[in-house]
Amino acid sequence: MTIAGVILAGGEGTRMGGLVAKPLTPLGKSTLIERIIPQMQGQVSPLLINAALHNGFERLGLPVVPDMLTGHHGPLAGLSAAAAHLERNFPRITHLLSVAGDTPFLPIDYVSRMCARSGTAVNMASSNGRAHPTAALWPMALLSQLEKYLSQPDAKLQVMAFARRTTIHMVEFQPFADLDPFFNVNTPDDLRNAQRFLPDE
Ligand SMILES: Nc1nc2c(ncn2[C@@H]2O[C@H](COP(=O)(O)OP(=O)(O)OP(=O)(O)O)[C@@H](O)[C@H]2O)c(=O)[nH]1
After folding, report:
1. Is residue 192 within a helix (H) or strand (E), and if so which, with residue range?
2. DSSP 3-state assignment of 135?
3. Which part of the chain is the MobA-like NTP transferase domain (predicted)?
4. In 3D, which of 118, 120, 101, 116 has the Cα closest to residue 173?
5. pTM exceeds 0.80
6. Where are the domains of the chain?
7. Nearest to 110, CA basis, from 172, 167, 60
8. Distance (Å, rounded) from C-alpha 105 to C-alpha 96?
9. Which residues pair with 172 in a beta bridge?
10. Candidate from 72, 150, 159 with most ligand 1 atoms within 8 A of CB, to mutate
11. Helices 155-163 and 75-89, packing angle to 10 deg
């Protein structure tokens, strides 16, 4: 397998209150990130978590790769750290599939559809016509050139600006019922909304 994966969990989660790292927030019988791991594990290798060390992610049994830069530079800093780790330890990896650690309803066909064609373009997920720049398949060659994009203040624009260096293929995912598969949890209200989709938990 030449496609690695990273769950981006390096944010501050300030809108959630910042008491625990947001992806470790309980949702139903599990946590946000533990709902994502099974959708990725076994299909990409290695599967990394980008997060600050000693924040509780170590117990999940996956390698935790922290940002290399101090300060908060957004998700591109996480992609950069994951790419550097792979270049050092897994030089044969050609692509990196990313996903945000706060999207607990990731589609079960996420990996297969995102990786169906892997070339020099970026494959970026979208739903309801909206692009999700943190949910994308990145050619490793592209990721080695991202430093100058790290200063862009808006995280979403930062990742989009970087992705536009090359062709972007959008991979559209359909909602199931009225649930957007890339619904992301930012606030306690979002968490309550997410719970509505898990009536048995
Ligand atoms: N490595 C890394 N990832 C980040 C950083 N900031 C945000 N992210 C990731 O980017 C994605 C989107 O993050 P947001 O929800 O916008 O930010 P957040 O920090 O998690 O939450 P807020 O502080 O409430 O905005 C998530 O996967 C975050 O983990 C950062 O400084 N470093």
Report:
1. helix 188-196
2. strand
3. 5-154
4. 116
5. yes
6. 3-195
7. 172
8. 20
9. 126
10. 72
11. 50
Three-state SS string across 80-103, please?
A: HHHHHHHHHHCCCCCEEEEEECCC
Alpha-carbon distances, residue 15 vs 22, 109, 133 (angstroms): 9, 29, 20
Give the nearest ligand 1 atom to 66 CA.
1
8 A C-beta contact, residue 138 and residue 95: yes
CA atoms within 13 A on the CB side of 5: 23
Tens-place pLDDT, residues 1-46: 699 999 999 998 999 998 889 999 999 999 999 999 999 999 999 9
What gap in Å lies between CA 166 and CA 178, rounded to an integer? 33
Q: What is the position in ligand 1's atom list of the atom closest to the CA of 78? A: 1
* CATH code linked to domain 3-195: 3.90.550.10
Rounded Cα distance between 132 and 119, Å, is: 19
Contact 124, 133 (CB under 8 A): yes
CA distance 115 to 133: 15
User: Which residues are known binding-site members for GTP?
Assistant: 8-10, 22, 50, 67, 102
Are 69 and 142 within 8 A, CB to CB?
no
How close is the Cα of 75 to the center of ligand 1, in Å? 6
Two tokens, residue 124: 């970026």
**Structure ipTM:** 0.95
